[in-house]
Inverse folding.
């Protein structure tokens, strides 16, 4: 698919702070795209520039190849669902959803039909006469989504759309959001700081750091093959170990480990995911194994997180699945091992 929206060298400053630093990005037609990053990474600023609420200091924003950097928000085929939902408390659910249609001059009969369709789409049939204060948090979120979708935007912007929901409702609503995106065919761009949310819902994820894109791609590709130390640590909190490569091996003096695998010459760091590390029943010898002592154990539901200090002094994070039995206790001496294919070489 071709690019629906393209950012070219977008730059935005707030005083001495650079929020976006010559950022380039393409978003395809009909794509569910996630902007992921920590506080101050630039993701919300980028969303506001796409919506038209902020103007870039430099660069261009292209929609279908046309520069819309100076186009006001109301003239863009873009809608935004705010984190606070921004519902009018004095209006009914139906009137909240119809607000944009009324402002656009849509005839009453057509307006009523489209509002009914939008409420049905989000599962709120029969809620049209209620007011926001009579709704739960999840229902308010659906009203805000219906108000955005009723305008039939080609691009829908979602600012932390699931942030106000509890854990169980977040998961269910996330799947419903994904289904709605497929049904409408609109491109969705979601801002989130929740990596699980981004990985579960998006077709592609852009991880931002300091106003730049650290990596962009399908969720599995970014998770399994991070392009930098920052990406490896941010997504899934991988173990990142420094060292040097020679003859297809990587020596990490800080951990006392020799990694073997497809490690290019010049590699100065490798990443190893906690869930890729196994506790060996018998002592391992040679590369891709290490002895250590369990310093702490944290139960997380479907697994336990172990902090294991190697004999050389480095601490490795190890995810021990519940299905593999009880985790070793604090103070236990264990041997860890992993497959060569799970070692990811990181660039300098």
């Amino acid at each position: 698919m071709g690019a629906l929206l393209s950012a070219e060298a977008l730059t935005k400053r707030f005083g001495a702070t650079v929020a976006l630093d010559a950022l380039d990005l393409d978003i395809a037609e009909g794509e569910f795209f996630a902007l992921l990053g920590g506080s101050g990474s630039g993701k919300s600023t980028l969303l506001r520039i796409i919506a038209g609420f902020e103007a870039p200091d430099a660069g261009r924003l292209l929609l279908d190849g046309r520069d819309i950097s100076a186009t006001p928000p109301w003239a863009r085929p873009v809608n935004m669902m705010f984190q606070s939902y921004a519902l009018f408390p004095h209006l009914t659910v139906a009137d909240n959803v119809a607000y944009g249609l009324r402002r656009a001059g849509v005839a009453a009969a057509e307006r009523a039909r489209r509002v009914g369709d939008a409420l049905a789409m989000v599962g709120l049939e029969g809620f049209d006469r209620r007011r926001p204060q009579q709704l739960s948090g999840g229902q308010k979120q659906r009203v805000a989504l219906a108000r955005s979708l009723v305008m039939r935007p080609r691009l829908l912007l979602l600012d932390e759309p699931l942030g106000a929901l509890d854990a169980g409702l977040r998961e269910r609503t996330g799947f419903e959001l994904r289904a709605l995106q497929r049904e409408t065919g609109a491109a969705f761009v979601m801002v989130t700081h929740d990596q699980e949310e981004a990985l579960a819902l998006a077709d592609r994820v852009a991880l931002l750091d300091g106003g730049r894109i650290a990596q962009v791609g399908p969720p599995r590709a970014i998770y399994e093959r991070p392009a930098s130390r920052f990406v490896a640590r941010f997504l899934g909190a991988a173990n990142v170990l420094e060292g040097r490569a020679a003859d297809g091996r990587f020596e990490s003096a800080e951990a006392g480990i020799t990694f073997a695998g497809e490690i290019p010459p010049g590699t100065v760091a490798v990443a190893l995911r906690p869930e890729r590390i196994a506790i060996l029943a018998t002592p391992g010898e040679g590369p891709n194994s290490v002895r250590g002592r369990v310093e702490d154990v944290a139960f997380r539901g479907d697994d336990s997180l172990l902090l294991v200090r190697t004999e050389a002094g480095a601490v490795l994070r190890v995810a021990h699945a519940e299905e593999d039995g009880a985790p070793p206790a604090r103070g236990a001496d264990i041997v860890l091992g992993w497959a060569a294919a799970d070692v990811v070489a990181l660039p300098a």
About this structure: The chain has two domains: 3-229, 239-346.
